Amino acid sequence: MSTSSPKLPLLLQAALCQVLFFSLLSSSFSASYNITHLPGFDGPLPFRLETGYVTMNEKSGAELFYYFVESERNPSEDPLLLWLLGGPGCSGINGLALDMGPFRFKIDDFDGQLPNLYANPFAWTKISNMIFVDWPIGTGFSYSKTAKDYTTEDVEGTAFIYKFLRKWLLDHPNFLSNPFYMGGDSYGGKITVLTADKIVEGNEVGQKPLINIKGYLVGNAATGEKVDTSSQVPHAYGLGIISKELYKLIMTHCAGEEDFKRPQNVLCATHLETFNGFLAEINSYSILDPDCSDEPPTSAMRSLKENQEEFISSPLSSVPDISCITAALLANYWGNHHLVKEALHVKEGTTERFHRCDFNVNSYYYTRSVPSTVPYHYSFITRGFRALVYSGDHDLKIPILGTLEWVKSLNFFVLEPRRSWHAGGQVAGYTILFSNNLTFATVKGGGHIAPDIMPFECFVMFERWISHQSL
Ligand SMILES: *[C@@H]1O[C@H](CO)[C@@H](O)[C@H](O)[C@H]1NC(C)=O
Ligand SMILES: *[C@@H]1O[C@H](CO)[C@@H](O)[C@H](O)[C@H]1NC(C)=O
Q: Does 34 sit in the ligand 1 pocket, CB within 6 Å?
């Protein structure tokens, strides 16, 4: 197999090689576990964490893995929020420990062994119940026994999440009456809107159980529109990364392009190549942060899995460049540790290697089939549901300028013009309130995943919005 061709999921490779996997998998059933302790976390967890699988297709053996965190305030009345990560192909562990979730990794004391976790004081689970899911199949710990389950696209994928939610709620009927919200980052923002729309349609035709949906919130969300990427150019210019000349050349020669990813005009393509060269040198997800690799050295991974002794005896050789240790890298170490897999009740033999974000799902198995979510935003919001669209202003992947442009294209009235919003006595960003209960907010200093760097500010934003207060 050439290295550039899509790799079959390891599970399937193994199955094809006729190993003992099927005997392990044949006992598949929906299962959930209360987790009281996690490797790397000191003491018992101060909240209820449940993990489990929802069987999506008994025949094909498709199982979605989820992480459920109960609200620390009042679980029976606080909102229930289903959060989707980006990629596609990024595991719910991103939400759990690299975003607004209840954990954070301790970066400073990493010694090449098991990463340590601490409780996030600004977790949104302080005031809401949250479900994070490893979607689609092939992401995180979700798997199937059937190869075709690894291939999906926006519409089918969205129906899959809606089905997951219905099955999850039937297993957890005490959460049926909580106010329900969808939420997502990046590509998860695109799928959030498509799923919310699907839920509303399902409710309208009486699909059971009815979902008590109230609205959604999306962060640095993809739409599929040209502005997702074309806005990178003015934003990079505004941030001082490219020259005025290059900015002008791109604006002139790319004006007619439908898409900045596959430009037709040769001059446009040339200038965009120069532009992408500038972007490639920095961390375009969060421009003030160092650009580091998320992948642990292969030697470290081998030791993690096969030989704990060897790993412990040579931790330094497996620690990457000390200046480049990030929480994202630690997530890959943590999720691959056998103690972590055991504690989370991951079924043995189902995920050979855990990836925080799975490259194969992202690049080969998933088709981005819906060209634009903007009509779905319009249809959902104008039916009377609430929406918060927020944007970390230091993200060059899905910049604030593009987001504001599509938000404005909905043509809602401006009820409250742009003003600053505050947290801890400081300006935390800027907000515009549109008609139809649509709030737009920037998070000053935030990157692609705004709560990662600005956890306090994002918690304040979430708490106000979810409590129906103005920012
Ligand atoms: C987990 O804990 C909750 C709350 O205490 C309980 O209702 C539920 O039945 C438990 N689930 C399992 C699988 O033990
Ligand atoms: C906005 O939301 C409030 C509840 O927070 C609701 O009473 C009101 O009808 C909504 N307005 C619109 C235009 O949907």
A: yes
